[in-house]
User: Fold these one by one.
Assistant:
Number 1:
Amino acid sequence: MKSRIALSVFTVIFIAVSFVPQNALSQASLAKPAKEVFTDTLVTSKVQLKIGGQLKVNGIYDFNALQDSESFNILSIPTGNENNTSPRFSLGARQSRLKMDIAYNTEKYGPISSYFEGDFFGKGYLSFRLRFFYVDIKNFRVGQAWSLFVDEAAWPDVIDFDGPPTGVWVRSAQVRYTKQLNENSKIAFAIESPQAEITLVEALDTTINSTFQGFPDITTHWNNTGDWGHVQLALIYRKLNYLYNNKTLSNHAGGFALSGHLNVGNKSKIILQAAGGSGIGSYFVSFRGGGYDAVTSSDGVLSNIPVFGGFAAYETMLNKQLKTTLVYGYTHMSTDIKELPGDEFWGHYASANLFWRLDKKITVGLEGQYGKVHDFYNQSGNATRLQSMLLFTF
C-alpha cells in the first residue's frame, strides 16, 4: 500500500511538471550537461569570464535494499538476510553545481583557458566540493580534471550519479600533454596523482601497513573521432606502495579501457565500454573509496584485486522533446583470501529512463534501476530504485 501511494505521488509530480511550454531537444547530455561555450561574458581587452551552473533536484524511491545512498552503487546492495529492507523515499539537491570559465589571450602563448566547477558532495550534508580546476596552455593541461583513463564521450545519459559500476569516471590532479595526430585522431599522456586504496586485514597479517605513494599514475589514451562516432583506447600503469616489516615494497598494477560510440542515423547511438586490470579498482565509479585496489591475502602478501567488466547503452530521440536511454552493465572481481567462503564478486546493473526537455534550460526525467550481486561470502542480494530529476541550467 505504501509503495502504491509513493508511486502515485511520484507520477502526479512528474505529470504536473510536464505542463510547461516546450522547445526543441538536442542530443546533448540532459542529466549531465557538458561544459558550455559561453557567448554572454564579462569582457575586457584580454579576459573573458562566465559564471554559470545547474540546479539538480533528485527524488529517489527505493523499493528495497539501498537505503542511504544518492548513487545506485551495486556494492552497497545488502546480501543474505540483510537484503530484505523497507522502502525509502528521499529528495536531494547535492548534485547542483557552480562553474566558471575564464579565457585569456596572451601575446607570447596565445589563448589560455581555465575551468572551475564544484558541487555539494563534500564531507557533511551540502558541503561544497571541488570537481574541476585546471588551465589549458597550448597542448598542456595542468590541474584537476578527468583522468586520461576516462572517456567523456562514452558515458550514457543517465540520471543516477554513478551509472554502470565499471564506468571509468574519475577526476585527478594531473599534468597532461595532448598531440593531434591528424584531423580525426589524437594521443595524450599524463602523470596523475596516485590514490592507492588498499584494504589491510589484520587477522591475516599485522606487519603489512599502508604508506605514502612515491610514484605517479601514468595514463595514456588514443582517440579517433568521426561522423560515424568515436573509439578510444586508454592504458594505465601504477605502483602500489605498502610497508612490510617497516620496509617499503611495491606491487605493479595496470589495466585498459576500450570504449566508444556508434551513431545510428541522426537520432540514436550505441555506447560500449570494456575495461579491466589488476590493482585499478579505484578508477571504477562504484569501487572508488572502497579499498579495492589491493588486499592482504595471506601472511606477508598484499595482492592486487583483478577487476573487469563493461556496459552497453542505447540512446535515442523519440521526438523533438523526448529522449530515452537503456543501459546494461556487468562487473566482476576476484580475490584469493583463503579465509573467505568465496573467491569472486559479480554484479549486474540495468537502467531505463525518459527525459523531457521542457525548455532550453529545463529538463525533467524519470529512471528505473535494478541491480543484483553475488558477494565474496557466497550470498546474493538485489535492489530496485525509481528516480526522478528536475534540472535547471543557468
Number 2:
Amino acid sequence: MLRDPVAPRGRRRAVVVALAIVAGGLAAIAPWATGPAAEATAPFSFRAVADATADAARPHVALGGQRSLTADGSPRRVTYVRFSVAGLRQPVLRARLRVHVQDSTAGPSPSAGAVAPVASTTWSEARTTWANRPVVGARLGPFRGAARAGRWIEFDVTAAVRGNGPVSLAIVQSDPDGVFYDAREAGAAVAPRLVVATGARPAPTTTRPPTSSTDRLLLAAGDVAGCTWDGDELTARIIDRYPGVTVAGLGDMVQVRGTAAEFRDCYAPTWGRFRDRTRPAVGNHEYLTAGAGPYWDYFGSAAGARGKGWYSYDIGSSWHVVVLNANCWEAGASCKKGSEQERWLRADLAAHARPCTLAYWHQPLFSSIEGLDSVRPLWDALYDAGADLVLNGHKHGYERFAPQRPDGTRDPARGLREIVAATGGAPDFLPFGAPLPNSEVRATRVHGVLKLTLSTTGYRWDLLPAADTSFTDSGSGACH
C-alpha cells in the first residue's frame, strides 16, 4: 500500500527531482516487480510540488501554473516537474516517476526518450522559461513505447534517487509528435508522482571464475536493441557482471532500421556501455539504412572493413574466431564460392591453424524456423578447415544443434555445432516449425546471453537467462 507522506518539516532534507521532457513520446518501462530480490517496505508516494513548461516558440514566457504539461520536438517544449521527498530511512531499491498522459498531437506518440541528469535543483515554477531552462547532462538510459491518452507512464529513476538529497533528471527526445501531460493543477488524482521503494539491499552477486586459469570467456547474443522494449537492458545487466569479457554481437544490434538515431537512443544506453569490448557481426536490420552506414560509423574498425564486415581475432592461445557477413545479396558481401569473402575465409583459416575455431554471423544456415541457404559456402570452408562451433542470431529465440556437416547430416567427429542465440532483447518471437533432424534444443520467448567458456581443448556453453526468462541451456564439446 502506498504511503503519501506530509510535507517535510524541521531539519529534514528535500529530494528535488526535476524532470525535463524534451519532445514527445514518453514510454513505459520494465515492470515495477522486476528488480533486486530484497525485502522491501511499502513504497513512498510523493506528489509534485511544482511543474512548468518551457516553450522554444515563446522563449521568455513563463508557463507554470497551467493544467497541462507539454513535451514536444517541433516546436521544442520542455516540461519540468519537482518533488520534495524526505523521511527515507532505508536504502532506495526502486524509484519511479509516474506521469499521466492527457493527450498527444497526433494520436499515441511512438517516440522514445532517454533519461539524463539536470544540474539545477532550484528552478522556479513561476519563472522558468525556455531562455532560462536548466541544463541537461549526459544520458543515463532509454525509455520505450508509446504514450497513450489516459495512461500512466512510469520512468525508472532509481540511479538518480540515492536517498534523502537533491536529484534532478531530464528525458531527452527529438520526435515532433508532442504529448500533453496532466499537471499538478489538474488535481491530485492525476498529478505527477515519484514512487520510491526502500528496504534492505540484497547481497552482491559474484561471478564464478573460469574453471581453469587457461580458460577464456566470450559472451554472445544477437537481435538486441530497439526503442520500444526493455529486453536489451535486461540482457545488458547480465554482461555487467562480466567486466572486461569480449562481447560477440550476432547481428541486428539495433532495430528497426539501423539508423544513427537508433544507435544513439536505443543501443548506446544499454549495450552501448560495452562498445569498447564488442566485436559485432552485421545484421539485415543494419542494412535497412543504405549500406549499413550508421553501423560502421558506430563500431568503427571493430566491425571490420567498411562495406565488407568480415574479420578475425584470437582468444587465448588456442582459439581463433572468425566473424562473417551473411547479408550475401548486399553489395560487396557475396557468400558464393569464389567470392571475395569466401576466398578471404579460406585464406584466414589456413593462416591461423589453431586447435579450436569459432565462427559467427547473423543469419543461420540451419533453423527450425527458417534457414538461409546462401551461407552454405561459408560452412563448406569452415568444415574443410576443421572448425568447431558456429554462432548465429536472426531467428528470435534459441536453438542448439548437434555437430553436423554443411549438408545437414550428423557428424560427431568433424561436424560443426551451431547455436542460434537471437536472445539479446528483441521481443518479436517467431514460432518454430518441424524440428530439423539435428536440432537438440529449441526455445522461444527467451532473453539471455550465451556464455562460452573456451579451454585449450574444448568449450562449454551456458545460456544465462535474463530477469524475464526462466529457460537456460548448458553443455560442452571438444575441439576436433
Number 3:
Amino acid sequence: MTVLAGDVGGTKTFLALAHMASGRLIIEREARFATGDYSALTPMIQDFLAGAVPAAACFGIASPITGQRVKLTNREFWIDADEITHDCGMTSVRLINDFAAIGYGLDALAASDLETLQAGIAKPYAPRAIIGAGTGLGEAILVWQGTHYEVLSSEGGHVDFAPVGEMQAALLRFLSTRHEHVSYERILSGAGLEAIFEYLCTTQSPSAPLLAAINQGDPAATISEFGLTRRDAVAGGALDLFAQIYGQQAGNLALTVLAEGGVYIAGGIAPKIIAKLNDGNFMQAFRAKGRYQAWLTQLPVKVVMNPKVGLLGAALAASRGHKAN
C-alpha cells in the first residue's frame, strides 16, 4: 500500500510517497516545496502527486492540531484533511503534530541516524522519552502498544523553569522581567539561546566581530557558531549554559516517564551543536539527580541526526493507520 507523507513547516514542506516492505519503510519519491508558494496544502499535494492516488496520507504539522482543518501558526497556509481526501481521492487523511511525527519516525531510523551520548541498556518495550529544542521545545512520551510504539503528545516544554545554582537563578530573574511565565521553552530554543546570551551580556562584553555577525544574520546560529569554535567567550558561556539546562530538563523528563526504553534528543538545534552535546556538560547535568544518578546512568541517550525523521514518522503513521494526535 502506497501512502503519502508530509512534513509541513512555515518555510518548507517535504512530501513523499512510501510503502512498507518486509517490515521496512521504503521511500518511493520525495520532493521539497517552499510553503510560501502556496496558500494551502491541497494544491501542493496535487502538484506532487501528478495524478497518482495513494491509499492514505498523514501530515506532521508545525501547529497545534485541533481538528480536521488547521492553519500554520506563522503563515496564512491551510491544511484541510477533508478537502485533501475529496480532491485527491484518498480514503484516509490524518493530521498530527510535527513532534508526534518525530516520535513515530524513531522506528524508521538506522543506527547511523543516531549519535550516542550514553550507551546505557534499553529495556525492551519500556517507555521512551523524546525532547527537542528548535523554534520551541517539544517533548513526547512513547509507549509500547503490542506491535509498535505509540506517541503521547506533551506540552512539557511549557512547565516552569527550575534553576539550579545562582547563575541559573539570576537568569530566571532576568527572564522574569520579560515574561510573566518563564518556561523551559523560553531558554531551550533558538530565541532562548539568544536570551541567555543577552543575560550574560549584562555582566560581560562580547567581541566586536560577534556583534557584527549577529547584526548581519541569525543571532542564535551566530552565537552557536562563535561558541562552538570558542571565538567569543560570552558566546561560549551561553552555549555552555544552554547545554547544561538542556541536559537538566532531559533528565527531568527521563525521570518523569521512567524512560528505560531510551531518551532521544531531537529538534533542529541538537545536530548543529553535537560537538557541545558530546563534551560531557549535557550528560553531567542529565545525571545530576541525587539519589537517581546511578539509575540515570543506565539509560540510553541518543541524538537524532536525520533531519527527515518527521517525514518518516508521518509515513509510518499513515501506513499503520494510527489515530491522529
